[in-house]
Design a protein that fits this description.
It contains no helices and eleven strands. By secondary structure, it is mainly beta.
């Protein structure tokens, strides 16, 4: 079992920046594939970013160039730095982990971007 706890969401004005983080349990964090999805009101949960164990990253086209995913294996934590935020980035951001042959999800953290 892998437990994920997100933190760092909040309210920010358009054009601003915000960082969210996700702390994971488990001794093999460095081997986990980690990432972020988001779900806006009335919409499906969408992919945002992934970071593999070798720190290779992949981003959704909508956030490429504005968001950066990173990981600190010593702290069992993955981060999402969000810059140049837009109102359409408003959503609940969910951390996920692919580990132990399964997918695990955090409880989500709200990010609201005001225009």
């Amino acid at each position: 079992q892998v437990q994920l706890v997100e933190s760092g969401g909040g309210l920010v004005q358009a054009g601003g920046s915000l960082s969210v983080s996700c702390a994971a349990s488990g001794r093999a964090f460095s081997s986990y594939v980690m990432g972020w999805y988001r779900q806006a009101p009335g919409k499906e949960r969408d992919f945002v970013a992934t970071i593999w164990s070798d720190s290779t990253t992949k981003y959704a086209e909508s956030v490429k160039g504005r968001f950066t995913v990173s990981r600190d294996n010593a702290k069992n934590t993955v981060y999402l730095q969000m810059n140049s935020l837009k109102p359409e980035d408003t959503a609940i951001y969910y951390c996920y982990a692919k580990a132990l042959g399964r997918d695990f999800w955090g409880q989500g953290t709200q990010v609201t971007v005001s225009s």
